[in-house]
Specification:
CATH architecture of chain A: 3-Layer(aba) Sandwich
Strand content of chain A: 25-35%
Largest interface: A-B, 39 and 36 residues
Oligomer: heterodimer
Strand order of the largest sheet of chain B: 3-7-4-6-5
Strand order of the largest sheet of chain A: 6-7-8-3-9-10
Distance between the termini of chain B: 35 Å
Shape of chain B: elongated
Largest sheet of chain A: 6 strands, mixed
Number of strands of chain A: 10
CATH topology of chain A: Rossmann fold
CATH class of chain A: Alpha Beta
Distance between the termini of chain A: 35 Å
Helix content of chain B: 55-70%
Number of helices of chain A: 8
Largest sheet of chain B: 5 strands, mixed
């Protein structure tokens, strides 16, 4: 398997002068193509910062980030925008669908932004709409959908450009357990059937257990790692809980 | 505590209130300037319509203040709605409605006092500027004009009234709103209902506006030529106002619908995002956009017509007053001041350079009147002037000498008389026949008759003398026309008051300048206030609407839209919203110019024709500059608030 994402010694400071916060402290890891990686950690551990720097919406203070062998940390503004548009897909906790656009318009927006032909756009729309089971909802507005359906639309939008890496930021955060489970199955299916490489930030051990690998962050550093290997999801879940307890994070009650 | 909260809120809301504050200050400055003109001593000293002008301007100030109050109530209420979550939170935390009302009214009062202070400060300069303009229109030397207590009091009273009304509207909203409604933002309707119907309404209104403009042009020309009142034109203008409002409501509700149907266009870049955002914004603000378009159109048309009125009347001055002084008397029944005494009085004011006396004669039979629309009007009669008299009158004015070889000339003083058909009338005198040479409507006014016949002297000699005139030319120099006119006046033998048989060009000029000065000042004041109010409302609405779009731009940024591309998207979104109520009012400059040209040509004001494009062009340019000024400010503020870039989501 080839390496899609490589992070080397990434450090990120916030603030200036005497009030400086170290959000990331020499983080290093890599993600292989076609894998599903989860990043866990307590609040303030640097999960969101890590996702922001990978998604190029924030700059790192030191270190290097490579996506598909290309260093993105030194890219200029326009190149970064094009990189985000063409090589990354996003799924957010709050769905981040545009309320004013229909489901169809939301899904094809990334293709419109890169001025894809109408025919190509239609073909890709049909492909992802069928895969994510949102074909019936295409003409509706996000406000007319359930939370689960909205998140499936967000998934469809994330993969319509066939991105190198799909970044998911607490995707189950706003869903009830039934919809959360359905979404995680969808993400797992995207990974298995569409070959999408997924990097997901979550604090939910159940959601993390759907990944093939879980990285744990604490105080801006990689604290540990759990790999599923040939084990089942249940065992994976137990091990995640164990590491979480060791971290002293928010899930130690379990 | 409440005062402290209000003060902090004002400081925190500076961004939101900036455009509102700027516009209110500007309006206050304008109010202050015009109020001071009303009470100005210069007005008493230099204008000939002291009280009429004062009351007319007072009326305009009241009317404008009413419109300002209405528009500011609207602006305040949506600034309030912008913060309704905050007020909902206060209620949830246990503050009473009275407390919140007190906070809001205190905020309003602070803003009002600040606007008043800033407005008065700017108004000090505005007043001198307006006064300079006024003195220029009066053709007087400008000197710094003193400020008047009356002007200050009138401004303060008007501003207090405006803010009171605006506060009452907002207070009523706050008093009635439920906590739930305050805390939960109502979602904008995404889809406009019945877009096709609105498209039809838009097209019908457009057809109505085009035909209305055609009708106004043709009817105004016909009214001028026939000397009819402009009743139908004014009614058509009112209907046009309604059509403009309805057209913009329809356009706001149907334009985006039509554009969204163009799939290929929508699939390019952020076009769908822009169109959908515009659809929501235009749909929910369609009524406001219609009213703004009306205000802008009113401002543009008002300025154009006030300039036309001024230029037109000035072009008429030389025609109405060809000589410095003009005496009119009946040939055999002379009243008033004897000629020798009058000339002595005139001589005391200015040296008489030349004088010429001429007469009008009356035939035994009215052949010309019988062929006109005034055939039943007994008070009117055919009158003749000798060719030698006529040539003697026109030659010093630069007109070519008229030659009549077995012909006569018909001179008409009013446009409608020029349209009568006199071609068939032949004059007979001592066995000779005289045919009509031509009908002329462009000569200066030498009699009060609607029309008169200029015929060879031998034809006129035997006729009965009807009227007696003397024209005087004075040597160059300042003439105290008002005092001279007063001295030449005498008690009316037929009734009360004073009459004067003399017409003074200088007095006419001053009177005309006084009327024009008031007219132009009032029109500029009204148009400027309307323009700035419309722009401010548009700017505030754009900014408030964009706050809801902030998350949308964040998503676009994450999806790979760079800062520049976001900037372009924002430009299209804001410019589309800003442009909609502006295009038609600006384009109305063209039909306005066309209507003015038709009226000018019908009124034989050829001198005005070449000035019309310059006047309307200048008006359009100034309006466009104000528009661009506001747009650039809005775009800069919006870009700062909405566009995302790396490290600043």
């Amino acid at each position: 398997m080839s390496e899609i994402l490589k992070i080397t010694n990434v450090t990120k400071y916030y603030g200036s002068g005497s009030v400086v916060t170290k959000a990331l402290d020499g983080v290093s890891f890599s993600v292989e193509k076609g894998t599903f990686t989860a990043i866990m950690g307590p609040s303030g551990s640097g999960k969101s910062t890590l996702l922001n720097v990978i998604s190029t919406i924030d700059r790192i203070s030191a270190g290097e980030i490579y996506v598909e062998g290309k260093q993105i940390s030194g890219m200029k503004e326009d190149a970064l925008s094009a990189f985000r548009r063409d090589r990354l897909g996003f799924i957010f906790q709050e769905y981040n669908l545009l309320d004013t656009l229909t489901v169809e318009e939301n899904i094809v927006l990334p293709l419109n932004l890169r001025k894809e032909s109408l025919e190509n756009t239609r073909r890709e729309l049909m492909r992802v709409a069928q895969a994510l089971e949102v074909s019936e909802q295409l003409k509706k507005f996000p406000g007319e959908l359930s939370g689960g359906q909205r998140q499936r639309v967000a998934c469809a939008r994330a993969i319509i450009t066939d991105p190198a890496l799909v970044l998911a930021d607490e995707p189950t955060g706003a869903l009830d357990s039934r919809n959360a489970k359905a979404l995680m199955q969808t993400l797992a299916s995207m990974n298995e059937n569409q070959g999408s490489t997924i990097l997901m930030v979550t604090h939910d051990p159940v959601a993390a257990s759907y990944g093939g690998r879980v990285l744990f962050l604490k105080d801006g550093r990689v604290f540990g790692e759990v790999c599923k290997g040939n084990r089942g999801r249940r065992e994976m879940y137990r091990e995640i809980l164990a590491v979480t307890a060791a971290l002293g994070g928010e899930n130690d009650v379990m | 505590m409440l005062c402290k909260l209000a003060l902090r809120n004002v400081r925190r809301q500076v961004g939101n209130y900036l455009i509102y504050f700027m516009t209110v200050s500007f309006t206050v400055a304008m109010l202050f300037a015009v109020s001071n003109i009303i009470f100005s001593e210069n007005l008493k000293r230099y204008t000939l319509m002291e009280n009429d002008g004062k009351y007319a301007l007072m009326g305009v100030v009241l009317l404008i203040s009413f419109v300002v109050a209405f528009v500011l109530s609207y602006a305040t209420s949506f600034l309030l709605k912008l913060r309704k979550r905050e007020f909902g939170m206060y209620l949830t935390l246990g503050m009473t409605r009275k407390n919140i009302l007190a906070v809001f009214l205190t905020e309003n009062a602070i803003l009002g006092i600040l606007s008043l202070a800033a407005g008065l400060a700017v108004g000090l300069f505005f007043y001198q500027g307006l006064m300079a303009l006024m003195m220029r229109l009066l053709e007087m030397q400008f000197a710094l004009a003193p400020y008047t207590p009356g002007g200050v009091i009138l401004t303060v009273v008007m501003v207090a009234g405006i803010f009171l009304l605006a506060s009452v509207t907002s207070a009523l909203y706050l008093k009635r709103a439920r906590i739930y409604d305050l805390l939960h933002t109502a979602k904008h309707k995404r889809d406009v209902r019945h877009p096709l119907l609105w498209l039809l309404v838009t097209l019908a209104c457009l057809a109505g506006i085009i035909s209305g403009l055609w009708f106004i042009g043709a009817e105004a020309e016909r009214n001028v030529l026939n000397g009819e009142p402009f009743d139908a034109v004014l009614n058509a203008v009112l209907v046009m106002g309604l059509l403009i409002i309805l057209f913009h409501i329809g356009l706001a509700r149907s334009l985006i619908y039509a554009l969204l149907k163009r799939k290929r266009m929508c699939s390019r870049g952020a076009n769908t995002f822009v169109l959908r955002s515009l659809s929501g914004a235009l749909g929910s603000n369609s009524m406001m956009l219609g009213c703004l378009a009306f205000l802008l159109a009113f401002a543009v048309v008002l300025v154009n017509f006030s300039f036309w009125q001024k230029a037109g009347q000035e072009a008429e001055l030389d025609r109405s007053y060809p000589y410095d002084i003009w005496y009119t008397g009946e040939a055999y029944f002379r009243t008033g001041i004897p000629a020798s005494e009058a000339e002595e009085i005139i001589g005391a004011y200015g040296e008489i350079e030349s004088r010429y006396t001429y007469r009008l004669y009356r035939p035994k039979e009215d052949v010309f009147r019988q062929k006109t629309r005034w055939s039943d009007y007994e008070g009117m009669a055919d009158t003749y002037m000798k060719l030698s008299d006529f040539n003697r009158l026109i030659e010093p004015l630069g007109y070519e000498e008229v030659e009549l070889m077995g012909e006569y000339l018909l001179v008409s003083n009013i446009p409608e008389a020029g349209t009568e058909d006199w071609a068939g009338i032949t004059l007979h005198h001592r066995g000779k026949s005289y045919a009509l040479k031509e009908v002329r409507t462009d000569y200066p006014v030498f009699t009060y008759q609607y029309f008169y016949v200029v015929a060879p002297d031998e034809v006129v000699e035997d006729l009965e003398e009807e009227m007696y005139y003397t024209v005087y030319s004075l040597k160059e120099g300042d003439l105290d026309a008002a005092a001279l006119l007063e001295e030449l006046s005498y008690p009316d033998p037929m009734g009360d008051g004073m009459v004067c048989d003399y017409k003074l060009r200088e007095y006419g000029r001053q009177e005309l300048h006084s009327v024009n000065a008031f007219l132009v000042i009032a029109a500029l004041f009204a148009a400027a206030v309307f323009l700035f109010l419309a722009m401010a409302i548009l700017a505030l609405k754009t900014l408030v609407g964009l706050l809801e779009d902030r998350p949308g731009y964040e998503i676009l940024f994450r999806l790979g839209m760079g800062e520049r591309q976001q900037g372009r998207t924002l430009f299209r979104q804001t410019f589309g919203f800003f442009l909609l109520p502006f295009v038609m009012p600006l384009l109305l400059s063209i039909p306005s110019a066309w209507v003015i040209l038709r009226i000018a040509r019908a009124s034989r004001m050829e001198g005005l024709v070449s000035r019309v494009p310059v006047m309307t062009g200048a008006t359009a340019l100034v309006v466009t500059l104000v528009y661009l000024l506001y747009y650039v400010a809005v775009y800069a503020l919006a870009k700062r608030a909405v566009v995302c870039r790396e490290g600043r989501k």
